């Protein structure tokens, strides 16, 4: 059985978008907050950095990011005068605050980025105190999150990681972003959006017919990997993408419910395993999981390959930044996590038979 890595849009949703009069995205945010939509989360991050540079009237700024970070997400910062320091995280993916406080006393950052991994909220209270103490701007990387109860000064979302949309990077800001930042770059073409729609509709048909496409010649299991960013690609989201997102945002509660249900069902199958365990020990009530991260204590590449042969799109975290990979001693936890974490899909479009297939495979092939 083939399991798809990303949710597919319903035909009802696609038809509904054709009759939507505008492309205004309405996802929850507090009064007075501003919302800007880009084609990818990395462009939203770049816009947030530019805004900080303008606000602080600096030609070069110091950015602190966690060492467990996707290298491709930094591509949009190429050409900008930024200095990146990759701070260490512990094995729970929280910043190592003792090291950070010591370093900040000597050389405080202009920007501190806190990542909420896999949909789980990180230590936001400590991050707020750290930024207030050292007078730096906090950017929340919520690209794996459906929504947050409260936003920092600048918050980045990536709706395409939760919703069935072709693109989307969302920036929430407590102050208006300079128009020169948000209007630069081209708009994604309709051709790109239609290619996405055709692929997803083909997947939906194959799923409905029960065709296991991962075993067919010329097909492969769809993996949850980031396509390397081309800095010349469009930065601004297509109007039709905005309409699809607007329609789905009204179903956020149901999407959260289904993702939580799928997560808990699959996690339960791992309860008594010794070679694999869930990364997070429990699922807090305010969390909408992006994926189910599991810690693998056997050869991860072998298990990942086995899952692919069974039609399960297990995936690993993308490449760590080069500076992190080149210094494995100072970034030992990030490297260890990268070598041991495997990600399983829990999205809202999974069918009961697909969930059962994953549970059966976990029961049969994982000790």
Features:
about 375 residues; alpha/beta; 7-stranded mixed β-sheet; 12 helices; about 15% strand
N-to-C order of helices and strands = HEHEEHEHEEEHHHHEEHHHEH
What is the first-to-last residue Cα distance? 21 Å
Structural class given helices, strands, pairing? alpha/beta
Poorly predicted runs: none
Strand order of the largest sheet: 1-7-6-5-4-2-3
Number of helical stretches of at least 4 residues: 12
Which word captures the global form? globular
Helix content: 25-40%
* Rg measurement, Å: 20 Å
Beta strands, count: 10
State mean pLDDT (0 to 100 scale).
89
Largest sheet: 7 strands, mixed
Strand content: 5-15%
Question: Can you tell me about this structure?
Answer:
The structure is a single chain. This protein has 367 residues and is of the alpha/beta class. Helices cover 37% and strands 14% of the residues. Strands 1-7-6-5-4-2-3 form a seven-stranded mixed sheet, with helices on both faces. It has a three-stranded antiparallel sheet with strand order 8-9-10. β4, α4 and β5 (137-142) form a beta-alpha-beta unit. The longest helix is centred in the middle third of the chain and has 20 residues, at 190-209. The chain is globular, with a radius of gyration of 20 Å. The model has no long low-confidence stretch (mean pLDDT 89).
Task: Give the SSE map.
Blueprint: H1 11-18, E1 34-38, H2 41-56, E2 61-66, E3 82-87, H3 97-106, E4 111-115, H4 124-134, E5 137-142, E6 154-157, E7 169-173, H5 179-182, H6 190-209, H7 239-249, H8 252-268, E8 276-278, E9 291-296, H9 300-309, H10 322-325, H11 332-340, E10 341-345, H12 352-365
Helix pairs in contact: 1-7
